[in-house]
Amino acid sequence: MPSPQKAKGSGWERDVAKFLSGLYGESFIRAPGSGAYVGGSNKARMEVLHEGQIRAFKGDIVPGQSFPKLNAECKFYKAFPFHRLLQPEPIPMLEEWISQLMDVSEADDFNILIMKFNQVGKFIAIESRHESINKNYIDYWSNTTGSNWRISDFEEFFTRNSDLVKRLCA
């Protein structure tokens, strides 16, 4: 029986997959093992797997057929120090999540960090180099990637950028 935290995270991954399936009319599913098969110390496995296998084991979401470049990491936590986004020091929790996402990323992937926090809401972070349309956002400089990440509301992002995501993931 999984821990309550693992069950909470797995449930969020299933919710994200269901949301994306409904939005794009394709089958998105939660990745078996949540990407651990080719992430971290297992990255060498990518050298012996074919493209379809890599896609199924990288990130937390196995994307639909026309989204081969989607690399998504999902996080569901009790709290997040939003106030620290406006301070110059890196946020270790966020740096760790970005590192996990980028550890399995390939050069042309569309990388997206999808986050949910108890009694706060759902948010996304994407690399700022992608010209997304957002009404409200915060830019975060990541020491992990040496680049800027745009953090915005999950649903508002997909309302305004669903075509952009599809184009960048094709």
Topology:
Blueprint: H1 4-24, E1 29-30, H2 51-57, E2 61-62, E3 70-77, H3 92-103, E4 110-117, E5 121-127, E6 137-142, E7 147-153, H4 154-169
Parallel strand pairs: 3-4
Antiparallel strand pairs: 1-2, 4-5, 5-7, 6-7
Kindly describe this structure.
The protein has 170 residues and is of the alpha+beta class. The protein has helices at residues 4-24, 51-57, 92-103, 154-169; strands at 29-30, 61-62, 70-77, 110-117, 121-127, 137-142, 147-153. A five-stranded mixed sheet has the order 3-4-5-7-6, sandwiched between helices. Strand 6 (137-142) and strand 7 form a beta hairpin. It is globular. The model has no long low-confidence stretch (mean pLDDT 90).
What's this model, at a glance?
The chain is an alpha+beta fold.
